[in-house]
Amino acid sequence: MKTNDNEFYVGYLPKAPDGLARFVKPMVTGLIAMALVVSLALVFAQHPFPRSNFEFGTDRTYRGLVVNRPYPELRASDGQYLLVLPGKHGAKTFADSFNGFAVEMRGSRIERGGHTMIEILPESARRLGQTPAQYIPHVEPLGEVTLTGEIVDSKCFLGVMNPGNGKTHRDCAARCISGGIPPAFIAKDARGVSAFMLLSGPNGEPLHREVLDYVAEPVRIRGSLIRSGGTLVLRADPKQFERSGE
I want to staple 16 with a disulfide (CB 3.0 to 4.6 A). Which of 9, 43, 49, 120 is the partner? Predict the structure, then answer.
């Protein structure tokens, strides 16, 4: 589209010359349309967030047996729950005090993919008996494995943050794990289905700062996989972790 070379527009004038206006309007309209198309493409290209839930501000009552190894858990009649405190704090001190006892407590539910955690209100806990139970956890060895995946903090990954993994979440995950939140290992099988497993030391001891150098990076871990109740636990030595190029 041609414009009159003699036309000149000054910004404070109320109207541009006709020839110049006929040239500028289609260009502006096209640029706006292009921006809308690009915006929509970026929106639909985003991966959907995983289905997870954190019942922040909603407390329920839970009853069960407190177990403190490798990480604090509540073994209840309706399931198995990891235990954490509010914020970036693990529940080790709480679990050590109640280990082996049947307890009633209140807390907020965090869940994703069939795995559940409770952010407990420690002041609400009370023992339901005076003597600890004779509890022997059922541990099923699943064999030696070599898996590639990502180390995450279990609290954010299960629902407090969404997404709760990846490099953008690395600093948060490192602070959570340093504060006692159980580290978890997320690996995919040949079908691309993710598996969630707690990460412990080779003898079932808890891990925290030992894994920080590998958080939110592709890492290859060799270890023994066990099933403790309904939870998978990968026992491995952090000194043998390897960064993966995958």
Answer: 9
